[in-house]
Amino acid sequence: HRVETAFPVEEPALIARLREDLDTYLADNCQAWVLQPDGSYIQNQPGEGEERLASQLVLLERLTGKPN
């Protein structure tokens, strides 16, 4: 099941946190899937010389303060 909600976020610190987390998800080049024009998906891959970024691991490290 999936539930989506929308609500205002007015606290500047929370807005900054949400933007930082969203930027992390958008930079994911290991676990993200990209929708193609034909409706299919391909898994995002790091570009040549690009460091791998797995958003869930980055966010977990950010929350726990421990490298994973």
> Globular, elongated, flat, extended or rod-shaped: what is the shape?
extended
Helix-residue proportion: 25-40%
Secondary-structure element string: HEEH
In terms of DSSP E residues, the strand content is 5-15%
The biggest beta sheet, please?
2 strands, antiparallel
Number of domains: 1
Radius of gyration: 15 Å
Average pLDDT score = 94
For the secondary structure, the number of strands is 2
N-to-C terminal Cα separation, in Å? 29 Å
Report the uncertain regions.
Answer: none
Strand order of the largest sheet: 1-2
Structural class: mainly alpha
* H/I helix tally: 2
Pfam family, one: PP_kinase_C
Organism: Marinobacter nauticus (Marinobacter hydrocarbonoclasticus)
Protein name: Polyphosphate kinase C-terminal domain-containing protein
InterPro entries: PPK_C_dom2
Structural write-up:
This protein has 68 residues and is mainly alpha-helical. The chain has one domain (12-64). The chain has helices at 12-27, 55-64, and strands spanning 33-35, 41-43. It has a two-stranded antiparallel ribbon with strand order 1-2. A hairpin with a 5-residue loop joins strand 1 (33-35) and strand 2 (41-43). Helix 1 (12-27) packs antiparallel against helix 2 (55-64). The radius of gyration is 15 Å and the shape is extended. The protein starts with 11 loop residues before the first helix and ends with a helix. The mean pLDDT is 94.
In short:
With 68 residues, the chain is mainly alpha-helical.
Keyphrases for this structure?
mainly alpha; 68 residues; two-stranded antiparallel ribbon; 2 strands; Polyphosphate kinase C-terminal domain-containing protein; PPK_C_dom2; extended
